[in-house]
Design a protein that fits this description.
Layout: H1 17-22, H2 31-40, H3 42-47, H4 52-58, H5 61-67, H6 71-87, H7 94-98, E1 109-112, H8 128-143, E2 147-152, E3 160-163, E4 169-172, E5 183-185, E6 196-200, E7 203-214, E8 217-223, H9 231-234, H10 245-265, E9 272-276, H11 282-293, H12 298-307, E10 309-312, E11 323-325, H13 326-333, H14 336-340, H15 344-349, E12 360-362, H16 363-370, E13 373-376, H17 379-388, E14 404-405, H18 412-415, H19 418-428, H20 439-444, H21 450-478, H22 483-491, E15 498-503, H23 519-526, E16 533-538, H24 546-559, E17 568-571, H25 576-585, E18 588-591, H26 603-608, E19 614-617, H27 621-625, E20 631-634, H28 643-667, H29 676-692, H30 695-712
Parallel strand pairs: 1-2, 1-9, 2-8, 9-10, 10-13, 13-14, 15-16, 15-18, 16-17, 18-19, 19-20
Antiparallel strand pairs: 3-4, 5-7, 6-7, 7-8, 11-12
Helix pairs in contact: 2-6, 8-30, 10-11, 10-13, 11-12, 21-22, 21-25, 21-29
The protein binds pyridoxal-5'-phosphate.
Pyridoxal-5'-phosphate binds near residues 128, 504 and 579.
């Protein structure tokens, strides 16, 4: 492995533990560790966007010398290092407690995903799926679940968003410098620069891997940028979701097949295998191949792979399900069917949709065929998935299609702001973090003192407003030419006005522009001099999603329209750092996907952990999360309404709720300026999100219902798709 010293210069001996701290991402969800790095040099900390490796490389050595002699710094340092030491001990974790027989040399869960959103300093994610995978790994680490992640390392990352003057999104690349990331290159057992070889399109592709430590969870990121490879193959993995289906196919082949081989090369023999979304499903084929190569008959190999595999589907939107041309697939894979001891047609049948797209290979069908445990990511999405995939079980009515659900959640320590945690320390007891599984903890939230909770919120809102100005100043100095861009970026926002946040991918079904449905009506709402309202938008459109880019351009236009008096803002380049500041600092989170297309949605949960209530359509997690006390819901439009009529109806409810309930409640203050009715919603938002929508609960569900039965080889009433029984 590349040595730590290649990333971090020599440190004063008294604080040399900073190097180990900076190179395991667990620092990012420990408040004291964050504070420690911030204390070293606050401006540099901000400048590096909270990247401790970059910070340690940038600060002058005498600054570190001074830290090493500062009693207060050292007290904090010692506490953080003590915590880091205890992280090595899994014996007292939730998992060890529940499943002592599976701790130790047991076989871990292998979690495959095409993207991981762990921290903005490692830009290998594009949005919700990646951030969810990141939160999954962090919670697995907290809980002591033996889990390893497998993904791809995109050294050009996902694109940086730059908006043209007319609001058209241009996509620019920025090379990731691995030196300033916590990625460590692994070497083969004999010192070779690669760990595995995979043949695609008739050529061998050599694969190396970077290791990223996420607390107790290692994540292996595959990379093909090796001299041994054909020049075209060297850049195969340089960008996430770039290029056409051909490149996608090869990336996924490498993730699946290469991922299994890399795990073998580093000596890991998983006991359960989780394909997080269909991108990772080739992993299942490689495992069939491993078994048939050992002489296991194909049918038995299928049973063995199904028994130990879990597949999670993440979207009902067709574009989210990869479908490849079978000829491309077979050119990419080569004749693996021969190794499997079956015919080419039999292999292609594993990914054949029974009623659609002849001549295509569906990654989701493949995953469902080879995983016995299949789930959607919210109750409603489970139901929608049973409908979508019922064709695979024609003998079953929808309700008994064997697809279940595990509702998504978010990682509390990543998404809850420091001031909110400090408030909970004061009011719930400093040990509240150890009582997260105790329902009474979340009931206690009902008693949070209103004025204090409000004060914490105002503090987080002020941080957001400061951040917006700082960002606008930086971009104005660097790149922007026009003052209108500075206005559009939110510099005219009123720090005291009611502030709505909307940030997510600009996929058209998310309807970022719904609130502009009736411009006059919105105008009356926003520029009301007594009860002003403002909206902050952020989000990227997929580079190939022209309709999404058009919605974005349309929204952007309003940010510069004097008609709205600077009350609509668009913040460029939505990523995790910006997401933090936004979900913590706005007053209301807006989420209006077209029902039922949002599988879960997670940003509203992040907001709620900071006491920010959500206004949303009854879709995804909100269908089970909304209880009447923790936000607002737009009632479902009639099931037979056409899309335009649904938009009109949803927009009308949206305006009505804002005009009649939400904005008046927000501005109803006592003598000290505290809006008690609003604060009550804040408490409930926090209570519901903390008790039910944490990634901790999500990972516990996976462990109890899926991982541990698979790890123990618990017999299973397997109910494969009908085609599998032929
Ligand atoms: C949480 C998050 C998302 C996902 O948000 P949704 O509500 O699921 O649309 C996307 N991008 C970033 C940067 C996030 O932090």
């Amino acid at each position: 492995m590349t040595p730590v010293r290649s990333k971090i210069p020599a440190l004063p001996p008294r604080v040399e533990g900073l190097a180990a701290l900076a190179t395991n991402l667990s620092w990012s969800w420990n408040r004291e560790a964050r504070a420690l790095f911030r204390t070293i040099d606050e401006p540099t900390w901000r400048l590096t966007r909270h990247n401790p490796i970059a910070l340690l490389r940038m600060v002058p050595p005498d600054r570190l010398e001074r830290c090493a002699q500062d009693a207060e710094f050292l007290r904090l340092y010692d506490r953080v290092l003590e915590w880091m030491g205890t992280e090595g001990d899994v014996a007292r974790t939730w998992f060890a407690n529940r499943h002592p027989d599976l701790v130790g040399p047991a076989r871990p869960v292998a979690y495959f995903c095409a993207e991981f959103g762990l921290h903005n300093s490692v830009p290998i994610y594009s949005g919700g799926l990646g951030v969810l995978a990141g939160d999954h790994c962090k919670s697995a680490s907290d809980l002591g679940v033996p889990l390893v992640g497998i993904g791809l390392s995109y050294m050009k990352g996902y694109f940086d968003q730059r908006l043209r003057l007319d609001g058209w999104q241009e996509d620019s690349d920025e090379q990731v410098d691995p030196i300033t990331t916590p990625l460590f290159l692994l070497q083969g057992p004999k010192g070779e620069p690669y760990l595995a070889v995979v043949r695609t399109f008739g050529r061998p592709v050599f694969i190396r891997a970077w290791q990223l430590q996420v607390g107790r969870v290692p994540v292996y990121l595959l990379d093909t940028n090796l001299e041994e490879n054909h020049p075209e193959d060297r850049t195969l993995l340089s960008k996430l979701y770039a290029g056409g289906p051909d490149l996608r196919l090869r990336q996924e082949w490498i993730l699946g097949v290469g991922g299994v081989r890399v795990l073998r090369a580093v000596g890991i023999d998983p006991g359960a295998w989780h394909a997080n979304e269909g991108h990772a499903a080739f992993m299942l084929i490689e495992r069939l191949r491993e078994l048939t190569a050992l002489g296991v008959p194909f049918k038995d190999a299928i049973r063995a792979v199904r028994r130990t595999s879990i597949f999670t589907t993440h979207t009902p939107v067709p574009a989210g399900h990869d479908v490849f041309d079978t000829e491309h697939l077979t050119s990419c894979s080569g004749p693996v069917w021969e190794e499997l001891g079956i015919s080419k047609d039999e292999m292609l049948a594993l990914g054949a949709h029974p009623s659609r797209d002849p001549g295509s290979f569906h990654m989701t069908v493949l995953a469902i065929s080879l995983a016995s445990r299949v789930n959607g990511v919210a109750k409603r999405h489970g139901h929608v998935s049973r409908e979508i995939w019922q064709d695979l079980w024609p003998q079953h009515p929808v309700d008994t299609v064997p697809i279940t659900s595990v509702t998504n959640g978010v990682h509390l320590a990543t998404w809850m702001g420091n001031p909110m945690m400090a408030l909970l320390d004061r009011q719930l007891g400093a040990d509240w973090g150890n009582r997260l599984d105790d329902p009474t903890l979340w009931e206690q939230v009902r008693q949070l003192e209103g004025a204090e909770l409000w004060d914490v919120h105002l503090q987080l809102k002020a941080t957001l407003m400061g951040f917006i100005r700082e960002e606008a100043r930086r971009r104005f100095a660097d790149r922007w030419k026009e003052v209108s861009q500075v206005v559009g970026a939110g510099t005219l926002l009123d720090p005291n006005a009611f502030t709505i946040g909307f940030a997510r991918r600009f996929a058209t079904y998310k309807r970022a522009d719904l609130i502009f449905h009736d411009v006059e009506r919105l105008h009356r709402l926003l520029v009301n001099p007594w009860r002003p309202v403002q909206i902050i938008f952020a989000g990227k459109a997929h580079p190939a999603d022209t309709p999404g880019k058009e919605v974005l351009q349309n929204v952007y236009r309003f940010t510069r329209d004097p008609f709205f008096e600077g009350r609509v803002a668009f913040l460029e380049d939505y990523e995790m750092h910006l997401a933090h500041v936004l979900v913590q600092g706005v007053d209301l989170w807006l989420n209006v996907p077209r029902v039922p297309l949002e599988a879960s949605g997670t940003s509203g949960m992040k907001a709620a952990l900071n006491g920010v209530p959500q206004l949303g359509t009854i879709d995804g997690w909100w269908e089970e999360g909304y209880d009447g006390s923790n936000g607002w819901a737009i009632p479902l439009a009639p099931a037979d309404a056409l899309p335009d009529a649904v938009d009109t109806s949803d927009a009308d409810h949206l305006y009505r709720l804002l005009e009649e309930e939400i904005v008046p409640l927000y501005y109803l203050r006592d003598d000290r300026g505290v809006p008690h009715g609003w604060v009550e919603r804040m408490r409930n938002a926090l209570r519901v999100a903390g008790s039910t929508f944490s990634a901790r609960r999500m990972v516990q569900d996976y462990v109890q219902d899926y991982y541990t039965p698979a790890m123990r080889g618990t017999p299973l009433l397997d109910d494969p798709p009908s085609a599998m029984n032929r």
